[in-house]
Amino acid sequence: MDYFEVFGLPRILGIDLAALEKTFHELSRKYHPDYFSTASSSEKTQAVRMTALLNDAYRTLRHPIRRVEYLLSLYGFKSDGSKVTQALLMEVFEINEQIEEVKAGRASIEEIDSLRAQIKEKRERFDEELRQASLAWDELVKNRASEEALKSHLAKLAEILSESSYIRNLENELEKAG
Known about the structure:
- The protein contains seven helices and no strands.
- It is mainly α and about 180 residues long.
- It has two domains: about 5-60, DnaJ domain (Helix Hairpins, Orthogonal Bundle), CATH 1.10.287; about 85-175.
- Helix 5 (about 85-105) packs parallel to helix 7 (about 145-175).
- The mean pLDDT is about 95.
C-alpha cells in the first residue's frame, strides 16, 4: 500500500492539507496501539505497523517537496541532480564561492543580504516551477493521460526538483555561514 492509498487519495500532488490532517487523525485514532491492548498478538503488530505507516505517509504527503519526491519514487524516478544544466551549475559554483567569502568573514552585511536575496529569488522561481508542474501533473492524471505523457512529465518534475535542491542547499549553507 503506497502513501496515497493509505489516505484514499489518487496519485496527485494538489492535496487538500486540512482534509489530509483530518483523515490522519481519524486513522490514527482507529489504529492507535492502545486500542489493541486486549487484541491478539498479530492484531497488535498490525496496529503498530499501520501507525508507523500512517505517520510516515502523513509526514511525506503534507510536505510539497517530499510529496513530489515520493511520487517520483513510486514510478522509479530520482531527483539525483544528474540532469542539471551547465548554466545552473556555473551559478551554483559562483554562489558557493561567495558563501565561502561569508564563512571566511570577508563579506559585508550588504553583500550577505544581496546574496541571500539572490538565492531566495532563485528558490522562489523553482518553487513556482514546481507548483506549476505539479498542477500540470494533476491535470494529466485527471484526464487519464497516456503512460508516455505521464512518464515524460515525471522526468520534468525530477529535473525541476533536482535543480531546486541545489538552490535549497545553497540557502542552507548561507544560513549556516552567517
